[in-house]
Amino acid sequence: RMLFPEETIALQEQFVILYLNRANLVIGAYHAFTGGITGTVADIRIIMGVALKAMACGMVISHNHPSGSLKPSSADKHLTDKIKEAGKLMDINLLDHIILSPEGSFYSFADEGEL
Asked: CB neighbours of 65 closer than 8 A, spacing ≥ 6?
């Protein structure tokens, strides 16, 4: 949650990735994309390119919903599947996709069995 600026978490969607080593320790965080009120574009090639440059073995992707709704959209689910499949090709595990609300609550794809 602390990777999302307090002054914009209720205003604009942002996409942040944590890159992890083999022991699942964070080796880097990347504020990848910032969008508008209702969405942002996440480019899988950039996400995977940074993962490769960081020599990451795993990652946790996250984005916020300024509206406060934690329900993942069909686009959220599709993007998660695409990133997971891209990671499989390079042996980089997608451990979770977390959606944050401005109030501090969250939705975890892993906790909900959607990974």
From this structure: 13, 99, 100, 101
Cβ(9)–Cβ(64) below 8 Å: yes
Q: Which two tokens stand for residue 74?
A: 């069909």
Q: Are 50 and 17 contacting, i.e. CB atoms less than 8 angstroms apart? A: yes
User: Which backbone phi and psi does 57 adopt, to 5 degrees?
Assistant: -105, -15
Question: What is the spatial distance between Cα 16 and Cα 42, in angstroms, rounded to a whole number?
Answer: 10
pLDDT tens per residue, the chain (115 residues)? Answer: 778 878 888 889 999 999 999 999 999 999 999 888 888 889 999 999 999 999 999 999 999 999 999 999 999 999 999 999 999 999 999 999 999 999 989 999 999 999 9
Q: Name 59's bridge partners.
A: 19, 94
Residue with tokens 């998660």: 80
Q: What pTM, to 2 d.p., does this model score?
A: 0.91
Task: Report which of 31, 32, 51 is spatially closest to residue 42, judged by C-alpha positions.
Answer: 32
